[in-house]
Design goal:
Distance between the termini: 41 Å
Largest sheet: 6 strands, antiparallel
Strand content: 5-15%
Structural class: alpha+beta
Radius of gyration: 30 Å
Shape: globular
Number of strands: 23
Amino acid sequence: MALTLLSFFALAIVGFGVCQASTRRLGLPADALINLGLGFFVTMAVVSFIVRQNWLPISTVSQAILLVSCCAAAATALDFNRGSRLALSAVMPLGSRLTWFNAVCLCLIAGYLTLILLSNMSQQVFPWDAFTTWMFRAKAWVTTDQAVDFATFNEWLVSGSGFTLPAAHYPISLSAVAAFSAAVSGGWSDQAASIPWFFVMTASALIMAGMCRLQTPNHPIAALFGATLLVTAPLVHWHGVLAGYADIWVMGTSGMGLAGICLWTQRKARSTLAISLLLLALGCLWKSEGWLWLILGCGVAMAFNFWPRRTLLGWVVIVPVAVALGFAQPIDLGPLGRWGVTESALNAGWFGVFAARPFNPAPAFLEMSILQGNFLLLVPLYGIALVTLLIRDFRDYFGYLLMALCLMAVHVVIFGLSEHSFYAETGTAINRLLLQNMPVLVVTITAVLQATGTPTPPVLRGAPVKGPAKTEPTTQQSAINNDTPPKWSTELFAATLFIVPLAMALPLTLAMSSLEAPQSTGTPTQTVSAAEFRPVVGDLHKSQQGYQFRGDNLPVGVAAIPLTHTNAIQPRYVVSQSWMQAPENLSFYWINNDEPGVHAAPLPLSGWSVLDMAEYQDFWQRPIAEMGILAKPQNFNQAAIGSVTLTDSLLKAIPALIHHWVTPGSISHRLINTTTGHLPAPIALQRVLVAALMLIIVIGVTWWLLAPASRTATVRCMLLAVSGLWLLGSSAHLNQVSSLMRNPPAGAATAADTVKLDGAHLIPLIASVKQNPALTSAPMLTASLDRFSQFEAQRLPFMALPTSAAAIDASALTQVVKKFSGTVVLLGKDGSQLQEKTAELARISSLRPRQSGNGYVLLSTEIE
């Protein structure tokens, strides 16, 4: 792994030297931060091109790239050492480089990047699409030592050799980079293949800081503030920690290119436009969406450059033209393809034809981008920034507003009209597509610092410093009192502006949430101590931790809550106080009058916890005959009941909510798509932060209007208060990431479920296959018989490499195996179902069971 780190450091230095030399030769202004990040992506493009050509074995090519890059990096370093000095910024105020705010931002960036590096160097490939697509191709290349082509599934079945990949049409550049990263260290390693994700996040942070500095060269904190917003956004950070997805590569290239187009519309610098177009072109290497952003960026640039935006005639012309095109579509543009929407299809020219699926994405977008903690406060801050720029500097920032409209149009078309609207409904790709646009949001937010702040004159090296202008003592003292308030008063006001809105937002959010669903009844809040519970099965005995179940030969321990009104609709929230050695040792149960049987929901936390019973259809708005707490016999000594509160108001559940918020959320494969940072709760911490942000803006703007003399201080205080909210939200994310570092994804929540999210429980099966040469050389099919085994069926082909394997749906397996000569692995939790499917396959094919274990059966045509 040391060689991998060395190679990427060397490649980054070489790329930086190339970009610096190119900008000097072309006579363009050079920005060291942008060139350092851009140079990394340029060298990655070159590496991916060389690796996938298959000129030589990948191991040989990788070692050659390492040798050449180290020599070139040494030459680049010597060149800079001889005559080129890198100034961080010639126009940044010298006295502001080491302010405490910048120091905090630097610490945050360094800490987040360190967590990414530690995770990449210690964790297995974890995200779902990583081991089924991007890393699968890379591992196949490294284990065979050549950039092999992938056949379609049907071609693979017929040939019985080679490799197949469901998403073989995805761009291969990212897989080539991962293959190089592993091969340069001597062979396949999940950790070595993940190292590039640390470097891509670092490069993205550098480019983001450079662009924010270009935008506001005189602002003391804009560069580091913008980089901090990007790196510490939870979902962005997860894509670095859980390596294997291509979205942050698109963000670092296409997203930065779109942000650069915004900068160019304001400053019209040729170098900015050239860098932006290069970044947009590089984005096409990683995912197909890169082409979409390239077309969008070029369209915005051309529209801004040629459109007469300052004349009313332009708007008079565009409206009837747009209406006419709306009635005339779909339109055939010849070489550009057919464009338009019909009742059954969405024609998108070069991108293809997609089935139409109308859907309103607004609620999903609101939930995923604002009300959950995927991006913390970035999206609401982006909206506030757009409104601010629209009101104050519409002409100067017209390009930013145009970019926002175009991005919204793209998201509406993809997630509101096409078949991809399914991913908005499930809350998956809608977040990852927005992640690719994060640099646009950040550069727009930091633009407000220039639009509203008081610019500081640049201080150049060697420039003479003029003395202060002469003023009357009374005038000077008045200016100090009005425009430069004491430092302690600014910090005090900022702290007040943070604490007061946060204190107001918590009860306000909880009260509004309690009104979202219909109230169950007018039943008052009822708190029942464990001493008042009525034992139904077993006995309750008081212990040091609370009341514990006792009894011999019992199927379960049951204690009922004495209800104020039986056979009536009960309150919405169940707030419990308990002690459990492990979560879910106790369960809350209920029996309704409509359905026979006992329904139960496990208590998620020891201590204070809360259940939102509106999520359970067999409880919510149903007359309840009985409810209480139950435990299995093996948990009698591992759990104790304290009290239970039944209420319709979350104001009574604040201790339980805080306990949920400070408890890290469980590790799952959905983290790559959506995250809250903490254990599921009726109200996410993010909602409180958004409410507090709105209150800060309202209070701050009101004070800004009422006290014109202290507007600069007011803006500074609002910035500090929002930063405090950001740090509070980041604490939940850091808590979850640190939980992953302490406890890798080793198992499931219950002891009966032996699934391990990193696939470690499949290692014995893979080892037995690889020990048998006949099984290793034969193709393999994996199929799950239930949804609980779907993960193993998808993970097994990746772990089996270089054995050629593919996952298949169980319903299609019976049609395929009739002419299949290889190995089949059936996975399922139900043993009888496994035996039944095994007998069916043996009856219709030449497959015979050869090996079985906990949750699987292996069949093959091997002759013993």
